Amino acid sequence: MLSIPSRRVWRRLAVACSAVLALGVVPVIAAQQAGAATGAFDYTKIKNLSQPRYDYDTEVVRETLKLPMSDGKAVYLEVTRPKEKRQYPTILEASPYHGTLADRDGTRIFPEPRDADGKPVGLTGYFAPRGYAVVMMDLRGTGKSEGCLDHLGKRDREDLKAAVEWAASQPWSNGRVGMTGHSYVGSTPSAAAAMNPKGLATIVPSAGLASMYDHQFQGGVPYFLQWAGPMYAYEQLALERHLPGGENFGKNVEDTGCGLPNSSLVSGEDQLSGRYAQWHADRDWTADAAAADVPVFMVHGVNDNAARVAAMQWFTERGGRAGDKTWLGQWDHGSGCCPTRRGIQWPYALHAWFDKHLAQRKVNTGPAAEMFLSDGTFQGARGGDRSEILTSSAWPPAGASTLALYPDADNGGLGESQPDAAGSASFTGDPQGVSDPQGTGGVDFATAPMTSDTVLAGQPQLDLVASVTVERVHLIATLYDEFSDDHPDLPGERRRISQFAINPELRDGIDKVAPVVPGAAMTLKPQGFAMAHNLRAGHKLVLRVTASDPDKVPTFATDPRITVHTGPDGTALRAPVVGSPTLVEDTVPLQARPKKSGPAQATIKGSATPPLGGPEQVDGVTTADFEFDVEDGKDNAELIAGAVPAQQADIDLYLQRQNADGTWGSTVAAGTSGSLTSEQLRLTRPTPGRYRLVVHNWAGLPATRVDLTIEFVNSDGEPGPG
Q1: What sign results for the dihedral spanned by CA atoms 506, 509, 510, 514?
Q2: Is residue 404 within 8 Å of 416, Cβ to Cβ?
Q3: Cα–Cα distance between 206 and 225 in angstroms, integer?
C-alpha cells in the first residue's frame, strides 16, 4: 500500500535454489470469441472541462492552519485556492506522507501535466487556477500534525470526517468536497466515506483499501513487505519527522513515538497465524464504505505488488452501483512513475470526474467500467504494456458467466468435466518459490490450448481440497496464462493473472483458528485476486498450487507432503467469463501531444558496475552512475531505461537530472521491482539536459556488470534510431 522507508528488508530471503516440477495437460474447454470494436474513449478530448482562469503566481493563495479535533489534538492543513472571494469546489488529500515521502502539492496522484521546468504541477497547480480549492491534510501523528499515529483507526476516521465537514462549511467552498489519493492516501477517501460526512460528494481512491487486514494478509498468508508495514515501517515514518532534519523537529515532542502502542504488533501471535484480530477489526470500514451513498471512481491495478487488488473487494461489494466508475488495469503500484500507467489520460479522467461531481458541470466521464488489458509478460504488463480495453456498464462486468473447471490428478488436466474417480497429486512444500514461482515444489493443472480468445474478467473462486502433514503451512494457488509453444516472442512463457492464498488454520473464517489435522482432507475457500485478461487462442489456463511465491513472505512454506485432491468431491475452479465482450484497441495517446510530432532521440547503450552489493545505497560502493544527455529539439515523449545484470542480481535504478550549478536533483523516476534478471523505469516528457542513472546493486555478487539501454519514444509511439 505504500513505499515504506525500510523497504524490502525481507527480500534477501528470496535468493534460493530451485527445482522444477510440471505435469501434463489434456482437456479442451469451450472458449468465447472476443468481439472487436473500434473507438477507445479518449479522455483528452472531453469537452466542456473547466479551464484556467486564475494565475497561479499572482491570483492563487496558500493558507496554513491547525484544525482542532474532538480530543483536542490539532491536524495540519494547507489550503490552496483562488484569492477571489467566491465559493469553489473542493478537493481534499489526506496523507501520512506529507513532508517525508511526499509533497503537499499532490504530485503523486497527479504526476501530469508538468511545468516549463519539467516538474509536475500536482493537484494544487492544476486545479486551483481552474477555480478549485485544494486542501492538504496531514494525518494525526504524521507531517506537522499533533497526536499519535493511528494506522487508519477510529481516531483517523473521525479526523477525516471532521476535515471534510470543515472544508465543506468554509466561505470559500461550494459545500461539495471530493477526495482522492494513491496507496495509503488512496485509503483515506473510503475511510472518510464510511463516516458519511456532510459535504462529501465523491471519492476517487487509487490503489487503496478499506481494511488494514487486506494490506497485510491474503487469507492469513502475509504479503511481502506490506506485512511488516503496520509493525514498524509506518512507525519509523512517524518518528522521522521528529529527528534532526525532520520538519517537526523540536515540536510537540511529547508525541514522539506515541503511536507505537497502535502498531499491529500488539496483536501478537495473530501476526504469524494471519488471524483477523481486534487490531484489524478496529481498522476495517469495509461494510460502511460499500454502503456509502456517494459516487466512487475506483482505480486499481491487478498486478499491484504493494496494494493488492484483493483490497478493492469493498468496491466489488457495491454490486455495480449506478454512478460508480472503475479503472482496472494490469499495472503495478506505479512507484517512481505514475499511479495508473495511463499517462495523460489519467489527469483528464480525474479532471472530468471532479468537474462533474464537484463543479457540477455537464461533462462526459467515460464508460462506467474500463479494464485495460495487455498481451505480454507479467513484468511488461506491470510496467504499462497495453493491447485492448474491455468496457462494461458496471464492475463486475455485465453479462459475465461462471465457467466451472476441474483439475484431474491422473493427467494434470483442467477441464469442464468433473473426474469420475477420486485422485490426488502431492508435492513437497518449500520456500524456494519466493525467488522462482516455477522452481519450487508444486502441482500443475492445465487446459488444452484455447480454440479462440477467451475474456476472463471478474472475481474467480476456488474450492481447494487439500491435505497437509504439518500443523501450519501456506497454500498458494496461482492462475497462469501459459503462452503457446509457437509464440513468436515468448514460447511457453507463463504470466500470473490471478492468485489465491490461505493458511488452512483459517478455513472456517479468517477470524477463527481451527487446528489442522495432519493428513486429513480439508475443503478450503481461499480469496482470489480480481482479474481482467484476454486469454488468447492457443494459450492455456494453468492452475499451479505451491507453498511459496514472490508475492508472499515464506514464513510457513515447508511441508514434507502437500496433497491436492481431485474428483467428484475434489478441487474446483470457477472462472468469470465475459460471453460477448466489448473490446477496443488501446490506441489513445498516453502523452500530451506537441503541436507537431517529430523523431525521438537515438537509443543510448552502456553499462555500469557497482563494486559491491547491499541493501544500503553507498555512493560508488553499492552504486555506480551512468550519465547521458536528453537532447533538445527531439520529440521525446517517453524515456525508457532498462537494466540487465550479467548474473542474477536485484538491481534498482534511480534517474536524476543535473541542476544548473552542477549538483544532482532529486530522483525523477525509479525502478525497484525486485526482479533478479532485469529492471526498468519510465519517465514521461523528460526535460532536455544532463541526466544520470544511479545503478544500485541491492542484492547481488560484487562487481556485477549491469548492461543499460536507454530508449526514447516519440508522440506517435515510435522509438528513436536503435
Answers
A1: negative
A2: yes
A3: 19
555 in Cβ contact with 229 (< 8 Å): no
Q: What is the 3-state secondary structure (H, E, C) of 528-559?
A: ECCEEEEECCCCEEEEEEECCCCCECCCCCCE
Q: Which of 282, 283, 337 is nearest to 311 (CA)?
A: 283
Task: Give yes or no for a contact between 101 and 237, defined as CB atoms under 8 angstroms apart.
Answer: yes
Considering only CA atoms, which of 566, 445, 466, 439 is closest in space to residue 526?
466
CA distance 318 to 288: 10
Instruction: Kindly compute the dihedral angle of the four CA atoms of residues 173, 179, 181, 185, in this order, to the nearest 10 degrees.
Output: 100
Taking the C-alpha atoms of residue 710 and residue 717, their distance in angstroms, rounded to an integer, is 15
Number of domains in the chain: 2
pLDDT for 348 equals 98
The per-residue pLDDT for range 677-700, each reduced to its tens digit, is: 999 998 888 989 999 999 999 999
550 and 626 within one domain: no
Same domain, 575 and 646: no
C-alpha–C-alpha distance, residues 676 and 486, integer Å: 26
Q: C-alpha cell of 689?
A: 539536459
Grid coordinates standing for 701? 555478487
Q: Is residue 550 domain-shared with residue 642, that is, in the same domain? A: no
In a domain, 168, yes or no: no
The answer as to whether 637 is a domain residue is: yes
Q: Give residue-wise pLDDT tens across range 486-518.
A: 888 888 999 999 999 999 999 999 999 999 999
Give the model's pLDDT for residue 23: 25
Report residue 66 as a C-alpha cell.
491547525
Distances (CA, A) of 571 to 14, 429, 464: 30, 18, 5
Whether pTM > 0.90 for this model: the answer is: no
Same domain flag for 578 and 609 = no
Is 78 inside a domain boundary?
A: no
564 and 423 belong to one structural domain = yes
Q: Are residues 452 and 417 in the same domain?
A: yes
End of a domain among 548, 583, 618?
583
Cell of 198: 456532510
Q: How far apart are CA 675 and CA 683, in angstroms?
A: 20
Calpha distance 217→231 (Å, rounded)? 13
pLDDT confidence of residue 59: 98
CATH code at position 671: 2.60.120.380
Domain edge (last residue) among 583, 614, 632:
583
Helix, strand or coil, per DSSP, at residue 664: strand
What is the spatial distance between Cα 565 and Cα 424, in angstroms, rounded to a whole number?
Answer: 4
Band (pLDDT 50/70/90 cuts) for residue 338 is confident
Cβ-contact 697, 609 below 8 angstroms? no
Closest by CA to 129, choosing from 218, 50, 64, 74, is: 50
Q: Is 317 helix (H, G, I), strand (E, B) or coil?
A: coil
* CB contact set of 449 (below 8 Å; sequence gap of 6+): 28, 484, 537, 538, 539, 540
Contact 700, 648 (CB under 8 A): yes
CATH of the domain at 537: 2.60.120.260
Whether 599 is in a domain gets the answer no
For residue 691, the enclosing domain spans 604-713
The percentage of residues in the chain with a pLDDT greater than 90, rounded to a whole number, is 79
CA distance 460 to 316: 12
Helix (H) or strand (E) holding 91, with range, is strand 88-95
The count of residues in the chain is 722
**Residues 449, 532: one domain?**
yes
Which has the closest alpha carbon to 299: 362, 226, 363, 349?
349
- Say whether both 577 and 635 belong to one domain: no
Rounded Cα–Cα distance for residues 493 and 491 (Å)? 6
